Write the structure tokens for this entry.
Amino acid sequence: MPKRADILVAQTSGLLQFTGGGSQYIVQTPAGVLYLVYGDTASDLAFKKSTDGGLSWSVPTVIFAGTIVSFSVWYDRWSNISAGLIHLAYTESGGSDTLYRTINTESSDALSTQTTIFAGTSSAGNGNLSICRARGGNVYCRTCIDAGAEGGFFRLPTANVPNGAWDAARTINEALATQDMMLLLPGWAADNQDMMGIFWDVSNNEVSRQLYDDSANTWAETSISTGMVELAAATAYPNFAAFVDITNSQNVLIAWNAVDAANQDLLCWTVTESAITAKTDVVTNATDDCGLAALGIDTSTGYWWAFYAGISTGGETWLTSVNIYGKCSQDGGTTWGAQTLFTGIIADITWLVTCPRFFGPHLFAYARDLSLDEIMINVQHGAGKRCKHSLGM
């Protein structure tokens, strides 16, 4: 029977540096090599890689030396592009800019020239940031760096990827507000440069689908769910997550309608340009204690995996003493398996991510604060056949 293990991958300078970024920080290549992008103890942006399923990790490679306050990650193959660039957007406090660089996983991890997405004048924590590549090859970034006063929506034409200049600011989807959150995803329209955004409007407690028409440079919005009581990204992040379901030309979303509250639900939808379809809740009417969200698809089986912090039947203490739990759906969100405990020690956990598209044994990363600020990877190891629910597959 395979077993789970918690592997210490890195230490960080505080656990709040992950706030407001995207929800994908782990990449798996077709060869099975794993990359983890993170902020190190000096608040530099760095990455490590693993060739053995996450059991051991390389020494870090620094991508940006400075003080990052937010960063976001996207991988070409998540957009069904047969290439190996990991796209990185990061906001730093020294020059108050949002910057861009890539890792070429198919060319000895070569780093591209650093370019500027947005040149700001001041930065503050708890802004939001998301980067994504359209199926047609353009790269897009939404950034907000200080209390809603600076940022915007920007495009890097595919001809300029990765070393060229970004276009001037495009039409923004909403008036900038620091506490709002946005996950950029590829769109599924006939124009493969169009985009989709999952937008969390904090002032209205609403999650919506926002569609970007690249040729018209316009946005259109449709509500997904109201009554979504957010948790500030400065406290713990993320509390919604999404993955790209390439086979079915759709995006899949989960989101908590409340955090650490009686009768809280972890809701699930499939989202396309033409339909927003509610699926079975991952968690319904949790006692309390729950939050954080990570979501991925095993491309070898088509199974969906959702992870979250805090036992849904109560008995743990959000945010200081929780474990990570997960559920699997083998039928596209129609049903979910039993709640399964994955971590081996209860802790203060404020950040949780998984690889949104993976194959083989799944894993996830989380940040915990024991005596040090630590990034842990929870991996499967040991001999034996894969289990469908109890231990991961």
